[in-house]
Amino acid sequence: MKLTFWGTGTSTGVPMVGCQCNVCRSPDPRNRRRRASVLLEEGEKSWLVDAGPDFRTQALDADLQNLEAVFLTHAHADHILGLDDLRPLSWKRPIDVWADHATTGVVHESFPYFFREGDGKTSRPRLNFRRLEAGTSVVVSGLSVLPLDIQHGDARILGFRFGGLAYLTDCNGIPDATLGQLKGLDVLILGALRSKPHPTHFSLDEAVEMARVVGAKNTYFTHFSHDVDHAVWAPTLPTGMAPAYDGLVVEF
Q: I need a surface site. Which of 54, 77, 162, 185 has the fewest CB within 10 A?
């Protein structure tokens, strides 16, 4: 199985609109970051984690032809605003969207037409919303998925474990029970927003320390702001840790 980082940026993306900082003006392609999302693939099957505002261009660049399912970590705009662009794929066959109760509620409020009966083919995507509960595994088209309880400021959201890989973006705390579910990882993907502390995200130093606690064989950091210059930060990281970048492929 392989995972492709479709986006490694925070909610504004990088470069950020109206900014002239060194990272936003950087010629290094690793500093150009769409909103955070990953695609898992095995053979002809594909599964998506989060569908943010950049989903359409991400999918076109990847020549995405079908999706088995979408998994949502939470309902912030940078993780759900691309759901409407699932329409063309869902017309081929309905797509299951897996989320917790709170996230599904926000999607219902944000996209009420998703849930109306009788609309024409082109007016809404054909999505089947399925419920996830942290700590309860599901199998989706042959893929085993363990939803994980993580802290995002005052909210509890979901991370995911797929076999030997775990994806934990948008968090600033991992409960002890979840740490127990992260033992034996080959790959950890962990959010690391910026160098300064933040009330809802791990800082760079905090993320490195948490990666040490989890102890995966390899760790990739994601969900960066324009405060993070890839070429500057990467050489400072411990062995087995690296910043991800858009387009990076990890096999597991």
A: 77
